[in-house]
Structures are given as structure tokens and as C-alpha cells.
Amino acid sequence: MPHADTYEHIALAALNQYAVMAPEILFLGKSGNVTFYVETQSSNFLLRIHQALPGLQNDIWQKPDVIESELKWLNALRRETNITVQEPVQNLEGRWVTQVLADNTQDIFNCSLLRWIDGCVSNNERTAQQAKNLGLLMA
Description:
alpha+beta
């Protein structure tokens, strides 16, 4: 398991492969992915370092083709529906998944970049209409 400084190094190396100028990054957390908030003068992003959860070997959700499929799906949802989803960003090579080689371990980390969507966590009880909308979205 890489050290926190290693994740920051991986995040910055990944961002070098995007048209992102002078990024400021802030570590958000680690669950299924290690995530960073990326702020620039013109836009904000979410950088994900895809990493399997401890104890899960061969985690399908960490495979580049599966990550790419998710990002293509999000891109299609943005283009073809009025659903608000994060917009995936292609790297300078036109790829959805950016691979970074960690210097100290020689492990390859798959990364993805999405445009940030501002929001808030609702502490209110969900309404019947919200439940219906969620059901429609999932269908």
C-alpha cells in the first residue's frame, strides 16, 4: 500500500498528462479509489487513482477497460440525456484512462479525471418523488 506522499506524486504525474495548468490538489479520501480535488484558475476537477480495496485481488472495477467503459457511459449520459453527471476528461493522448508508473514500487496506477460538480449532502428525509427519480435513473 503506497504512502500518502506517493499518492500525491501519482496524482501530479497523472495531471501532467492532461491539459490542466497550474493545478492545486487536495486529498479527499480513500475508499475504492484515492481521490483528489483539483483546482485550476479556469476549472475544478476530481482526480481518481483507481486502486483495489485491500484483500481484493483481481478487482474487475480496477481494470483499464472497465474504467474506460464507465467513463464512456458517463460521457454518453451527458451528451444524450438531461441527467447531471460528471464529465470525464480525456488525456492529451485522447485516452480516458491515464496510467502512471510509481517510481518506488514500479506498480502501474490507472487514473481518471472528471469535471467537478458542486453539490451538498442532504440531511433531509428523502421524498417519494426523489425515490421515484432514483428508480427511473437506475432503470
